[in-house]
Each structure stands twice: as C-alpha cells, then as structure tokens.
Amino acid sequence: MLCIILSIIITAIVVYFCYKSMKPVSQASNATNYMDSDVKLSLETDKFIRTEKKRKKDD
Amino acid sequence: MAEQSVLAYTCPECGGSMLFNPKEGKLKCEYCDSLFTKEEVEKYFAEKEQKMANKDQNKEWGEDEGAMRGYNCSSCGAELMADENTAVMRCPYCGNQTIAPVQFAGTLKPDYVLPFAFEKKEAIAKYKEYYDKRFLLPKDFKVSSKIDEIQGVYVPFWLFSGTADASCKYDARDSKTQGNYEITDFYECNREGKIGFKHVPADASVRMADDLMDSIEPYKFDALEEFTTAYLPGFLAERFDVKEDDDKKRAEKRVEESVKDKMRNTVKHDQCNPMTEDIRISFNDTKYALLPVWLLTTNWNGKTWTFAMNGQTGKFIGDLPVSKSKLSLVAVGTFIISLIITSLIWSVS
To answer: Which residue in the set B181, B212, B262 is minimally distant from A56, CB to CB?
Structure first.
C-alpha cells in the first residue's frame, strides 16, 4: 500500500514538472539583472539574543 | 479622411526598398544589395523626412472609425490604413516598408532603440529548435504552425532607473551539534542600505502580453542606440499605449523583490527570517525605448499560441500545447517504474 502511495506521489511530481516545462511563460518577479551588484550598507548590526541547547532525539 | 505622410527607406541607388540588416548593422537594398550606414541614410533622408513631416496633417479618420489613420505609400501611392498605434507597416501592393513619422514625433519620439541582432531565418531556426525536442507536443501542432509568418517587431518599453532605500530587521539563527546536543544561537540583525537600479524594462504596449515580454528578458542595455528611424525598415513597430505611470507600478514591484533578496543575502547566518522589510523606491529617470522582438502567432485547436524571441539575445519562449495522450503515457510509465523500484526497495529492507 505504501509503495502505491509513494508511486502516485512520484508520478504526480513527474507529470507536474513535464507539464510545467511546456508552459515556461511567467511574469517577472524581480529586476536583479538591472540592479547594482552590491548593496551600499549604512547600518549592519548583528545583536546576539540567546543560546538554546536541546538534547538530540534518540533515533 | 485625411492621409498622413509616411517615410519609406528606398535605395538612393536604385529606388528599391531597403531593410535593416541585423548582421551587417546597416540598411541593405533588397534589389541591388547596396549597403548604407545609419548616418548615410539619415543624412540622405533628413530632407525628405522633414518635407513629409511638414505635410502631415495629423488628423484621424473620425470618431466612427475608431481612431484609424490613413496613409499614402510613398513608393506606389496606395492608400494604407492602420490603427493609431501602428508606426511601421508594409504596403500590400508594392511590399515597401513605410514608416509613419508622426508616431515618432515630439513626445512620442523614443529615446533609444535596441537594434535587432538576429535575422528572420535565425528566428525560424530558433523556433524549430524550441519545439523539436518537446516530446509532449501534439504532432499536428508542428504541421499547423505558420512558421514563415514570424515577424520582427520593435516593441515600446519604458525603462526605469533610480535608487531603493531599505531598512530591514531579521531574526537569524546559527545551529551546530555538540555531542548529544543541538545548540542554536539567536540574533537580531538590522540592515539599512541603498541600491541603484538602471533601465528596469516594462513593455508599454497593451497588445503585448506582459508575461511573454518579461519571459524573454534580460536585455543588454549597453547596446542601446539613440533613436533613429533608420533601424526600423524590415520590422514592424508600435508606439506606446500604456502610460509611464501605469508601468511604474510593475517596475516598482520587481525592484522591491530584488532589494529584499539582496538585503537578506547580507545576513551571514544559517537561517534568516525577515521581521520587518521597509523598501522605499525613488525613480529619477525614465526612458522610452523600442526593443527588438521576433513574434509568431499561430492558431491551433481553437486557441491562439504566441511565441516570442528576444531580438538581441535570441532567447526564445512561448507556452506550448500538451498532448493529453502523451502526458497519460508519461504518467502510466512513471507509475509502473516507480512502483517496481519502491517494491524492490521495500522487499530488500
């Protein structure tokens, strides 16, 4: 049963990507190609807040 | 009906029509093969163009005709009709490419033009290459494609330049394992900065699908030339019909997303989650440019399919129809193979 469910999931993923490869047109979501390569930073602070220590779960 | 003056680049040598040749970067006579540089042509036709512009009455057909405009072909005198945005058209009687100078006059004059770098036969080859490797494409789609109707079009674009100021706060984390323990350090990262952007394009034509025009990007704008009609013969051209302010919102959204990405990349921790991202965009310059696009529209199964190729870089794109039978075959095949593999793994483990 698990094998069938897994196969259905794999098939759905493959079919989705095959279909998407035929529909490559999409609206641009960024303008990276037309921007300066680096940001000129005027403020850059990394404030340490706390440390958390957790015991790893046994396998 | 008032007719408007048009400009046709006819060969100074033989009177034949001339087209811009992307390979030579010059205007070439279709009949005697004479080549002329942009400067030579501009000089030769400056007087003629001025004369035409002076004659122009700039009148439309009238309310009832839906802003159609009438022109006379300067080569054979035939009466041509075009909508109010068409700037370059081909005379159906003599085949001469004619330009309506009024579409590029005054405030309608583009600042730049990016010349075509690919010829029609190269665009056709790219189209064939594009669909040839597609297994899922229906067989009869290839047959019905009217590939010879591929057309070079100068599409109007707004190019936005400016700067973006960003002020962001992130929740960042570094994780490491020490013996039986997982240790996570938490940080609050603040970033403020500025980044410039230049010539973010947004197509200014209602007829062109925004997503299709976005998909053939990027353009290399270092090859932009000052606008002259000498680049237009051989291609269609339109003037803008989307206002600068309407396109600005699209450009703004794109810039905002890129600035967010770039700001997040300045945080050098294992994980980075934005808490606040304040992006302020100021545009300080907008240019109007004509960019080269090879377009092919074809009808198949009652639907219109449009393909576009970046006339500068050769990037070809367009959604393709999917054969349902082939897609089903892929689904069944994948299911059987994955079922065999998962069953084998299951039985071994």
So the answer is: B181
Alpha carbon distance B226, B290 (integer Å): 10
Predicted confidence at residue B229, as pLDDT, reads 81
- List chain A residues with CB under 8 Å of B190: 43-45, 47
Rounded CA-CA distance B196/B180 in Å is 47
Beta-carbon pairs below 8 A across chains A and B: 172
Antiparallel, parallel or unpaired: β B97-99 and B7-8: antiparallel
The count of other CB atoms within 10 Å of the CB of residue A35 is: 21
Q: How far apart are alpha carbons B141 and B318 in whole angstroms?
A: 14
Mode of pairing for the β-strands spanning B68-72 and B79-83: antiparallel
Please state, rounded to an integer, the average pLDDT across all residues of chain B: 83
CB B123 within 8 A of CB B216: no
Q: Mean pLDDT over residues B65-91, rounded?
A: 66
* Strand B68-72 with B3-4, pairing: parallel
Torsion angle of the four alpha carbons B277, B218, B103, B28, in this order, in degrees rounded to the nearest 10:
170
A37 interfaces chain B, CB cutoff of 8 Å: no
On whether any CB of chain B is under 8 Å from the CB of A46, the answer is yes
3-state secondary structure of B193: strand
Cα–Cα nearest to B41, from B225, B233, B223: B233
What's the one-letter identity of residue B343? Answer: S
In this complex, is the C-beta atom of A19 within 8 Å of any C-beta atom belonging to chain B? yes
Band the pLDDT of B68: cuts 50, 70, 90.
low
**DSSP assignment of B259-292:** HHHHHHTT--SSEEEEEEEEEEEEEEEEEEEEEE
